[in-house]
Amino acid sequence: MKLFKNLYQYRELLKSNVKKEIRGKYKGSFLGVLWSFVNPLLQVLVYAIVFPYIMRVKTDNYLVFLIIGIVPWTFFTYVLNQGMITVRMNSGIIKKVYFPREILPISVATSGLVNFSISCIIILLFCIFGGVGISWHLVFLPVIALLQYVLQLGLTLGLCAINIYIKDTEYIVQFLMNMLFYGTPILYAATLFPERIRWILYLNPMAQIINAYRDIFLYHQIPDIYGLLYLVGVSIIVFIIGLVIFRKLEKGFAEEV
Amino acid sequence: MKEVNEYAIRTKNLYKDFKLNSDKPGTLKEKLLFFRRNKVEKVHILKDIDLDIKKGETVALIGTNGSGKSTLLKLMTKIIYPTKGKIEVNGKLTSLLELGAGFHPDFTGRENIYFNASIFGLTAKEIDKRIPEIIEFSELGELIDAPVRTYSSGMYMRLAFSVAINVDAEILLIDEILAVGDQHFQEKCFSKLHELKEAGKTIVIVSHDMNSVKDLCDRAVWIYEGRIKLDGKVDKVIDEYLKVCR
User: Fold this and answer.
1) In A, residues 75-104, which contact B (CB 8 Å cutoff)?
2) What is the CATH number of domain B1-36+43-90+215-246?
3) Per the CB < 8 Å rule, is B79 touching A11?
């Protein structure tokens, strides 16, 4: 509860920090903030060429299928990559002023959410002009996005705190994320796996998230309710663990960074 | 309850150690390989500090370099935490520990006022209300809309000080930064501090400028090698301190 009280009192700081995160990353480049949208599109372009033509993967509406996978994944990697280093990047103010430290990872996670919300417009454009269309199932979008936000916030809270004490965390997580990219049905459909072992894939919360997005954007159906419940559980547990780790470690930030 | 609220800051058996590591084993490899060597040496910066500061008191912390004054201030602001013992702070606190802490060099003075004041927990509305006063006090005039990196250190300090005294804190911690300003601004700062003192704010100041300390503070605490050596009326403590220094 201390978390919400702090957030309310320091809402102005949170707001200006989120703005700084969004503007700051691409500061000095010509396209500026636009890069956060151009980047995933370029990535999609690469996969859209590589997989159907070189690897001969056949999926209907592969371009739309890819976009729906890549954009949430970019949200995920952005929050983790930026979130992990946020405490170190802000060592200057951490050493000199007191403010609730959790503002930093929360700002990153929130700026990621803002970026993602805008990117959803791109997904919608692809849906409309890609011949898939849209449906009322989009009402689930905020729910799924919120679950993803909470999950990522939990991961970031825990990891950015650990990263201050053990700098290797950053690189280990980077590697794990690279692996997870292929362990998540982004480039392929989950149905590629035989039913017997598919549950292993579904243990990965990101697989559940991507599937849910595909359900509402592409297949126009209600996301799997058990999948969503599983996500709720995992997100909350991850968030609580992350927050506990952060609370334990934050007291040493000023001395360790 | 009432007894507790009489005090702005209370410390009890406060200890603070710092790790003394010349070569920091930061990576996992080094942690694993040299885990036996990881028993870093510790320096005791503060030892058994018992200090009660009542609301409305103006206290100077004096002592030689490295005696632990600034560490004590940092503990009060909750930037760092005690190794042992307790510290209790009642009331809203603002600190001016280092020049332009949390200033963004590329942002303008005005943007930095917003950023800095929001770090102290103010909302946009509250900042809007105070901004004319802050700008006026800083005497920066039109330069307020120039990036902070173009400022001189005196201007930096003027801006930082103007923000800090305008956030309506009940407790103000100041560490040795007033020395940067010119004569005119220093005098202005001290008269403002006198004003705040009259208004019943608690002020804790670290300074080597004994004359201004004598003028402003009622009480002085002499810290010597991490312990409180003398605590009492400002004149008496400073006289004793100067005797040793000379």
Assistant:
1) 92-99
2) 3.40.50.300
3) no
List the strands of the sheet with B93-96, edge to edge.
B93-96, B171-175, B202-206, B58-62, B219-224, B227-233
Task: Measure B209 CA to nearest chain A CA, in Å.
Answer: 22
All residues of chain A having their beta carbon less than 8 Å from the beta carbon of residue B118 are 10, 12-13, 15-16
**Has this prediction a pTM greater than 0.95?**
no
Place of tokens 């120039």: B146
pLDDT tens digit sequence for B126-184:
899 999 999 999 888 899 999 888 988 888 888 888 888 888 888 989 887 666 678 88
Query: Is ipTM over 0.85?
Result: no
Are the C-beta atoms of A112 and A153 separated by less than 8 Å?
Answer: no
Residues of B in contact with A10 (CB under 8 A): 118, 121
Model confidence pLDDT, tens digit, residues A21-67: 887 777 667 777 788 888 888 988 898 888 877 777 777 788 899 99
Domain spans of chain A, in order of start: 31-256
Question: Per residue in A25-38, is it b (16+ CB within 10 Å) or e — as a string?
Answer: bbeeeeeebeebbe
Cβ B27–A11 below 8 Å, yes or no? no
Among A91, A247, A252, A164, smallest CA distance to B17 is for: A252
A contacts of B78 (beta carbons < 8 Å): 98
